[in-house]
Amino acid sequence: MRTVLHRIYEHTYSQNDHLIQFCIRVLLLILLANTTCLGQISPGELAKPHADLEGVSNCIKCHELGSSIQNDKCLACHKEIQNRLDVKSGLHYQEVVVAEKNCALCHADHAGRSFDMIFWENGKDNFDHKRTEFELRGKHSEIKCEKCHKPEFVKDNLKIVQEKIDLNKTFLGLHRECLACHVDEHRGQLSDDCAKCHNEKDWKPAEKFDHDNAKFKLTGKHINVDCTKCHKPVRDAKAQSPLKTMYAQYVDLDFATCQSCHEDVHKGRLGSDCQSCHETENWQKTDHRTFDHAKTRFPLQGKHKTVDCIKCHTSGKMVQPLQFASCQSCHEDVHKGKFKQDCTSCHTESDWHTVASTSFDHQKTGFPLKGLHANVECKKCHTTGNMTVALKSDHCSECHEDIHKGQFAHRKDGGLCESCHDEQAFIPGLFTVDQHQNLAFKLTGAHLAINCRSCHKEHIPADSVAIRQFIFESTNCEECHEDPHFGQFKERKPAKICEQCHQTSAWQELKFDHDKDSRFALEGAHKKVACNDCHKNINTQGKSGRLYRPIDPACETCHKGNSSILENREKLE
Predict the structure, then answer these.
(1) In 3D, which of 491, 481, 409, 476 has the Cα closest to residue 450?
(2) pLDDT digits (tens, 9 = 90+) for 166-197
(3) H-only helix segments in 357-413
(4) How many CA atoms lie within 13 A of 107 on its CB side?
(5) In terms of Cα–Cα distance, which of 307, 278, 304 is closest to 291?
(6) Alpha-carbon dihedral sign for residues 308, 314, 319, 324
(7) Can you give the pTM of this predicted structure?
């Protein structure tokens, strides 16, 4: 009988069949009249939270005759849930009000005293906490429900609205603020909005915290200092748990002066304003703009002004006196005493490698400095730094590379630079036009007015190093000039060369005799005809020029049509 009624009850609830509901009401009235059947009316024993409602006389406290269980019946008792609906917040508001679900879908009963009245659709561990309007992220998503939902974390006084509520089993009453569950590690020193500095993934480090927003901004070396170096642990006398007795101090720290954290190595001799000399980027590096070393017994001059303090004050004790009677107190004598250790006789503090011209006379050495050599920095030649070691200076090649790559090595002097250059300037050279007349290629006519580099151009030989060419295998005109006759005279036997017709004074100035140098002597009226009337312009080999040969000497070539001359042009093309 009990089982049958349970099945009917379930069917009635799920199907909402009015006929069956009517039958059940009739059956209940009959059974109420027969007290011997009271134990057979209920479909099953109520769960422990509802044990006080056991008995037929209490059925209508939860059930509505002729209808399924209504939410109003549940909320009449469960005022703590009604409160959540009133404030329109939480899981029950979303499920009951927004989704319009029946309480019995998640909270069934009549399954025995030990029955858990909460139905987890996908299992408790797979519950979507986002439905509660508090999404679990980071570390929160990894912990069990019981870690948070326990009596000590319940902040709402649920007992006022529901005296019988079991705080060990309820999921209500928790607040969303971090400090509702977590101990305030800062003991009220900072904002209670933990999310301003921390995230839910890891408590440390506080990635969102920006020290620039604090009263003491971190600069230089302070940026890399571990937080605990400044924020020391403090004992919390009010702590209830022995594991939470220590916390870091973040407020009310003394940082008015550097001495609040750092020891004064000067023992007060230079005052308390450390920043007048030092900077946070590097304690050992003194700010020369503020510290006046001229007030000491050793005023800094020249290069000494840029030397790092620790280079001289090696012990780090800036107030400890140093020896500075002579340069050798700090510097090694690279001359090994040859100049009697009187460094200032040649050098100044502005630049050790620049010798004072008023004191050191290089003209007294085996290599007097002339021209540009007088302005060369000493270390360019004295590369070892030892100025007293004799250097080879017989030839320019001892120091300078031969930029001509041995083109003049065949000369009697072996190609000495001095033949064309001196110390005043390597360019321009000293080689003159008169000297050029002694060469195989003498300069005449227009060649005298041409810049040297127009003929002596740079080229890249097989070793791929660009050099300027001075030695030529041939001095023929075509080495420098383009043949405007596109080879018409090379085919002649013997071939004509430019010099037979042209002169260096001017290209247009010819020494050509038409009667002797061609096979067509000019006679009669031909002597008065302009050259270009017979020697027409033609295009051949992609170039434009005048036709000189071959031209058919027959009269018809010029006087009776152009068939012959056209034939000659085709041959050239």
Answers:
(1) 481
(2) 899 899 999 999 999 998 889 999 999 999 99
(3) 378-381
(4) 18
(5) 278
(6) negative
(7) 0.45
